[in-house]
Amino acid sequence: MTLEDITEQLQRARALEDLQVITEQLRDFYTITHIVYHWVNSIGERFGAGTYSTDWVDRYLEKDYLRMDPVIFGCLQRFNPVDWKQLDWSTKPARAFLKEAIEFGVGNQGYTIPIRGPNGQFALFTASHHSSDLEWEAFIQANARDLMIIAHEFNKKALEFENKTETMPVPTLSPRELMAMTFLAKGFSRAQAADELQISEHTLRVYIEAARHKLGALNTTHAVARALSSGVIVV
Amino acid sequence: MLRYIYGNDLHQFPLLRDTMFRDRADQFKTRLGWEVCVNEAGEERDEYDAMNPLYVIWQNSDGAHGGSMRFLPTVGQTMVNDHFGHLTDGVRIESPLIWECTRFCLAPGAERRVSAGLVLGAGEVMANFHLEHFVGVFDPRMERIYRLMGLEPDVIGTAGEGREKIGVGLWEMRAEAWPRTLERVGVSRETSLGWFRQSFAAGEKLRSVQHAVA
Question: What is the ipTM of this complex?
């Protein structure tokens, strides 16, 4: 399964159980220990999907670790991705918590992407693993961008579930985004497309990036394919 | 030195915070004549300061503000999407890989390395958080200054005339911009990354815990 396949499956998700399956697919794709997505909706209800063992989830709830988990506290007011090494583990309870988490197989490395949604909605997307610092750093350097995109795709779903949207909304591109994507689909280079639209290449790249985000694609090629297959653009 | 501070942590740096908001009043209200709100304390703040943005601030050796800018993710509320959509060809600029940068401000009489320092700070944010673009609102009268700093915005659109004129621009930090930016600030990349880590990291504590566990 490619990352594109997994992303498309994520877009077709209709319920929480589907998100669960996708966290498992992502974990297997990256061959890391865990992928977890959890969120708090605008009325304070909590939901989660992820690959942590039920033993660890039960333990976490039983001990009410939510009240002291340094990952939660370190990400709550942030919007930058956070490597767990940057968090404050200096207190005794935090160190005991970490030791226990490692014993329960969470992993000794983690990377959490906080997302601030509308109306107080808040989510964390986490990848965790058992590895050396060096290996983990290389993994993050190679995959952070995709993980950020996927994290936001999970969050789009969470908001969709919250709003009880029955059918998946077809993204609507603005006229300029449509033109940009159409030129790319026709095989124009970015320089040619920018020229046609009489905008700078940098502006074009930003318009394509906005369209990529709307289409829920991983990269430009994937975005063009999605725009074509969903009928957003016609060449 | 550069500091990277979220709004909810500004209280830890009272002098830096107060001088920043006062210098913003001086730049945007007094010098540029923007229609911004200045409170009784002489500080310029807007609704985006209340959204817990990330500030990148140059701190002078006396502890006061030398220059600063403000970042917010474009997947949330931003000034460009809320108020300047008509300047971006109707494209809503939203992506986890694009952050908005606003209120680029220099203290009166700031030394030259301060503006280069801010460019460096923006570059570190982009590199360390895997971002691809910054979008921002700027005063076209500042364009010459940006150019002097090697920080030329790619202008998407402008509106208004004279003092009222305002632009929306894009910035990125190209690989070739790093050496000359570092040179202008007079620091090594290591020092710059050290400042960044000092702001974002709680230290080397996890490593020692991991060793204890292993």
Answer: 0.94
CATH for A3-162?
Answer: 3.30.450.80
Which residues of chain B make contact with A98, given a CB cutoff of 8 A? 206, 209, 213
Task: Give yes or no for B50 touching A (CB within 8 A).
Answer: no
* Cross-chain residue pair B91–A149, CB shorter than 8 Å: no
Give the residue ranges of chain A where pLDDT is below 70: 165-169
A181: which 2 tokens? 């994507």
By CA distance, what is B130's nearest residue in A? A145
Residues A200, B154: C-beta atoms closer than 8 Å: yes
pLDDT at position B28 is 94
Q: Say yes or no: B212 contacts chain A, CB-CB below 8 A.
A: yes
Protein fold of A175-229: Arc Repressor Mutant, subunit A (1.10.10)
Strand pairing category for B166-171 and B133-138: antiparallel
pLDDT digits (tens, 9 = 90+) for B173-193: 888 889 999 999 999 999 999
pLDDT at B78 over 90: yes
Pick B6's closest partner by Cβ from A78, A81, A149.
A78
| Three-state secondary-structure class, residue B101 | strand
* DSSP E strand stretches across chain B: 2-6, 54-59, 65-73, 98-106, 133-138, 154-159, 166-171
